[in-house]
Structures are given as structure tokens and as C-alpha cells.
Amino acid sequence: MSTLSERILGAPAGEYVDRDVDLAFAHDGTGVLAREALREMGVERLPHPERLHLIFDHIVPANTGTTATLQAELRRYARSSGVALSDAGGGICHQVMSEGLVRPGMIVAGADSHTCTLGAFGAFATGVGATDMAAIWASGATWFRVPETIALQLSGRLSGAAEPKDAALAYVAKLGMEGATYRALEFVGDGAAGVSMDGRLTLCNMAVETGAKAGMFYADATTVSYLAEHGVSASPEAPEDCRYEREVDIDLSDIVPLVAIRHRVDTVREVEEVAGTQIDQVFVGTCTNGRYEDLARFARIVRGKKVAVRTLVVPASRAVLARAIATGVLADIVDAGCMVAPPGCGPCLGAHMGVLGEGEVCLSTANRNFKNRMGVGGEIYIASVATAAASALAGEIAVPEVA
Questions:
Q1: Does 402 reside within a domain?
Q2: What is the domain-level CATH number for residue 96?
Q3: What ranges in 123-235 are assigned the alpha helix state H?
Q4: Would residue 403 count as lying in a domain?
Q5: What mean pLDDT is predicted for residues 179-205?
Q6: Which one of 256, 282, 305 terminates a domain?
């Protein structure tokens, strides 16, 4: 029997295959490089523009004249080529694609390493380089080496103040940052069904932090219901009795609030071990934890209180922002003294809107805490939304209370 990757790619692990790509996207950073590569290839007419997306999310709004000029060129190219454009303010590429565009069984390529996020829908979704993306745009296809698969056997349910982000940090710590290189991670077991779609996106998002090629859930009733809300019909698909390269057991009921300490994502501690660490900034958002479920959780914790440290909240998409406005979630966040930035990646990549100064410390809900990532000399701790909210109120890393 086949793993999910083998089913979708149509070959056993280890084989090389050429496959059509159902959806492909680049953002305002990699899109510039992909467009230049297309020029060098001499490609002007794209065979399948209906499968392609340009999504402005990394530096929005533009921070310099140079950035603005490059984005303007990409806008013109999108209009002339027929490529779908999500302009500045639309949201993060992975979130935009998750809002009714990706379906189970698809092959999805994105010119961003966290494209594995979209495996939450039962798709094979993986990141590629800008030159590879240009080749996909030019031909509609690419090659893959079918990855071996590691099964993450989930049991139990999250409890207390633990969140899917804590479970993600737990498995990254177990596997290590190189422990799943060019493998697919399959989230299976009785515990998988109890994880919300937003939680699944978080768990798949961090697969690449172990070196994995993809992170995947099987489509089930949760998947079908979520896609139906976006006007998309889908069918569930159950795991088969297949052979995995390795199986890792994770009891969700054992998960507690965790934090990745600088400067590696797999250097993980229980929050209570580092509680009291002074911080200068809290950042809530990114493709890992900027969805509505995240913003609503943060708002519940800070409602009626005031943050003690500068706190930046960035919705993952315009749809998330609109829902947060309609439900009063955004008002609670603003009333607590937080800043709200336009949908996008925000300061995650260290380009603008919240960059750290020398020696400053940020508690972030992002996925990476590499040295200098959010600003030269800055330090990053990675944690859940609940931990971020508790820490924002305390002005130091704090253990979240049970909701």
C-alpha cells in the first residue's frame, strides 16, 4: 500500500517522476527572480496561466522606491500574462492559497519554503527555488524524487493551555532540524481527527523546519467541511496500511506550552523553564499563526487588559482581517494597546514593520528564530499564541493560563 505522497505522485519512494503541477505561486520576492529567469529562458507566453499565482506578501506595503518599482513591474507582468495577482494587503501566500484554492490530491509548488503548509488539505505541497518556479511557469510541470515518509502518530487531544503550535515545536524538537531531510511527514493516528484545520496548517507549516519536503494530513470530515465553507467540494481519503520509513509517537495530551529558544527551532524548552525572561516585543502573525483562530485566542486573553510591551499583530489575510473586524476580535486587540499591521508577513523576514534593534528580544509566533532574522543583533523566541498573549501582558516570557 502507498503513502499519501506515493499516491499523489504516482510512484514508490525513491523514484524520479515528471508531473504536471496543479497550482504554482510565487511572492513579491521570489516572483521578481522567477520573472528574470523567464526572460533569460526567452519565455513570453505561458502555457497554463490559470494555474499560476503572484501573491504580494513579504514587503507590503513597499518599504522603498526600489521595492515599489519591482512590485510595479510584477503587477504589469501579471496583467499581461494572465497570472492571478493577489496584491498588497491580500495576505500571505500560503494563507491565500488555503482559502479555497488548494484541494486534496493536488500537486502544489510554491516559491517559498513554507509551501508545505498546504499539505494540511491532503495535497502534496512543497517549496521550490525561483528558477525551478520559472521552469514550472514555462512548462506547467516539474520533476520530483518521491520522498520516503515519516509517520507522526498522533494520539489523545490537546489540553490545558497547549496549542497546535506547541505540538509543532514538540515534533521539531524530536526530529531535529535535519532529522527529516527530504522526507514527507504524515500526521496520522486517532489524534489527527481532533486537530482543527487551522491547527493542521500550523503543524504542516513547520515540517520544513525538520528539513522535510512536505507535511501532510489526510482529507477527512474536517477538511471537507472547511472547503465547503469556501465553496469547494471534496471527498475524504483514509490512510492505507502502508510501510513508513519511521514512526514517531506524539501523545497530544502530554503537550505543554513550549518555546524554542535562540537560535535554533529544535532547541525547545517548557515555557515555565524560561519564564521571567525580559522581552522588548511580541509578534503575533505569520503563515504559522496569523489565522482567525489565532487572533481570536489572542483577543480572548488580552480582552479588557493592557499589554506591557510593544505588541504587533498581523492578520494572515484580508479575509482573516475582515472576520476579526466583524466579530470584534480586532477591537479587543487594539483596545489592549496592540499595533495592527496590514495582512502579510510583517517583520518575520526582518525587512520592515517591527524589525528588532541590537540586543532586543522578541517573542514571536513565527516559525524561525535564526540569528539576525528579524534584525541584526536581535534575539527571537518562538512560541504559541497563548504564550505570546500572556507574555505581552506580563512584559516578560510568561506561562499562559488554562483557558
A1: no
A2: 3.30.499.10
A3: 130-139, 164-175, 197-205, 221-229
A4: no
A5: 97
A6: 256
For 245-261, what is the mean pLDDT? 97
What residues form the annotated binding site for [4Fe-4S] cluster?
287, 345, 348
Alpha-carbon distance values, 339 to 105, 146, 310, 353 (Å): 39, 44, 8, 10
Residue written as cell 501532510? Answer: 216
Q: Tell me, what's the pLDDT at 249? A: 98
Which residue ranges are tagged as binding site? Answer: 287, 345, 348
Provide CB contacts within 8 A for 261, sequence distance 6+: 267, 268, 269, 274, 369, 381
Q: Cell 496592540: give the residue.
A: 338
Contact residues for 65 (Cβ-Cβ < 8 A; gap 6+): none
Spatial separation of the C-alpha atoms in residues 197 and 201, rounded to whole Å? 6
Q: Which of 256, 283, 302 is the last residue of a domain?
A: 256
Range of the domain at 76: 1-256
Chain position carrying cell 494572465? 82
Q: pTM for this structure?
A: 0.96
Average pLDDT, the chain: 97
Which pLDDT band holds residue 309 (cuts at 50, 70, 90)? very high
β-bridge mates for residue 186, sequence order: 151, 216
Structure confidence at residue 403 (pLDDT): 67
Predicted local confidence at residue 240, as pLDDT: 85
The pLDDT of 76-84, averaged and rounded, is 95
Q: Which residues pair with 268 in a beta bridge?
A: 260
Distances (CA, A) of 398 to 191, 261, 352, 353, 395: 28, 14, 27, 24, 8
pLDDT(271) > 90: yes
